[in-house]
Design brief:
Blueprint (H helix, E strand, L loop, with lengths): L1 H13 L24 H12 L8 H15 L13 H11 L15 E6 L2 E6 L7 E2 L1 H16 L4 E6 L9 E2 L3 H6 L2 H11 L5 E5 L6 H4 L6 E5 L5 E3 L2 E3 L1 H6 L5 E3 L1 H16 L3 H13 L2 H19 L2 H13 L3
Parallel strand pairs: 2-4, 3-5, 4-6, 6-7, 7-10
Antiparallel strand pairs: 1-2, 8-9
Helix pairs in contact: 1-11, 3-4, 5-7, 7-12
Keywords: Isomerase, Peroxisome
Main location: other
GO molecular function: delta(3)-delta(2)-enoyl-CoA isomerase activity; fatty-acyl-CoA binding
Length: 326
């Protein structure tokens, strides 16, 4: 981890960061987009299924569904914004308009991870706000694939962040013990995709973070955090964002009330810098550490599997659940 932190500091000294309004473009990779003739029927069925949910998904999800449907069937917004007293109409229009020039091919179903595009910026967004954006085992492969795609597209840089809900965001880990024991390849590929990512990679930490979302921060070139991120968990100790910054895990901390506007302004400004120069600069920095980082990653994943199978781990898990209030 020391080498990854050192790498992070080196990379951060080379790149400058700087507003973007986030454009919601959920995406699943390797999906066919040829069934537009039946999309009206599918959308109607999706609306009907929403009514059967035990828990209301919330207005944000409904607006995203509406916006994606309109973008897929009509394209870019082509009507004027409704009047001031039409609150529902204005909210729908805003959601649709936020998709900008996204084409039908780019508009796909949403999921636990969203791949979005804002100008020259690729955005990977964890999208499980009801579960505090915990990373499930299946999401390791999804994020790895999205990083691979973002590394090959024509974007200048990539941002990873989490979805907002009730003003709080947690980027954390939720693993199946059995799956980790049986196969460590998803975790190895996941970290490996950060090690090999060829473009500037920025973390926007807009809430508490634990697990691999903290330990991987050293592999980012820039890490921005809100001062609301007061529970960065490392070595079983909660750190504030300021403490994480002092230890080199975070590049800069911002007051929460200006966090989004200031950070996205910097990111957008950075995205206008010469892309090839930034990519070559990162390549020169990363080349000296890349093989070593892969060796460490492989060794750590193997030891993780060994630890999960150990008696010590079993006892610790039992002790944890026994200590939880009934």
């Amino acid at each position: 981890m020391a080498s990854t932190r050192c790498l992070g500091r080196l990379a951060r000294s080379v790149f400058y960061a700087n507003n973007s309004r986030q454009i919601v473009r959920p995406a699943h990779l390797h999906t066919s987009y040829t069934r537009f003739s039946n999309i009206d029927g599918e959308f109607t069925k999706a609306k009907e299924r929403l009514g059967t949910l035990k828990e209301d998904p919330g207005n944000e999800v409904k607006l995203n569904l509406y916006a994606l449907f309109k973008q897929a069937t009509v394209g870019k917004v082509n009507i004027s914004r409704p009047g001031m007293i039409d609150f529902v109409g204005r909210a729908k229009w805003d959601a649709w308009n936020s998709l900008g020039d996204i084409t039908q091919v780019q508009t796909t179903d949403s999921g636990d991870v969203l791949l979005k595009r804002d100008g020259k910026i690729s955005i990977i967004q964890l999208n499980r706000p009801n579960k505090k954006n915990a990373i499930k085992t299946e999401m390791y492969a999804t994020i790895s694939d999205m990083l691979e795609e973002a590394g090959k597209d024509d974007s200048t840089l990539t941002v990873i962040t989490g979805s907002l809900k009730s003003g709080k965001v947690t980027i954390s880990t939720q693993n199946s013990i059995t799956r980790v024991v049986l196969n460590y390849n998803p975790q190895r590929k996941f970290i490996g995709s950060f090690i090999d990512f060829p473009k500037p990679l920025i973390a926007v930490i807009n809430g508490p973070a634990i697990g691999v979302s903290v330990t991987a921060l050293g592999l980012f070139d820039i890490v921005y955090a809100t001062d609301r991120a007061n529970e960065v968990l490392l070595f079983n100790k909660k750190l504030t964002a300021e403490e994480a910054c002092e230890r080199g895990l975070v590049t800069e901390v911002f007051p929460d009330d200006i966090f989004q506007s200031e950070v996205w302004a910097r990111i957008r400004k950075m995205s206008q810098l010469p892309p090839q120069t930034m990519h070559l600069s990162k390549s020169l920095i990363r080349a000296h550490h890349q093989d070593k980082l892969h060796q460490v990653n492989d060794k750590e994943c193997k030891q993780l599997v060994e630890r999960w199978q150990s008696e010590e781990c079993a006892n610790a898990v039992m002790k944890f659940f026994q200590s939880k209030p009934q």
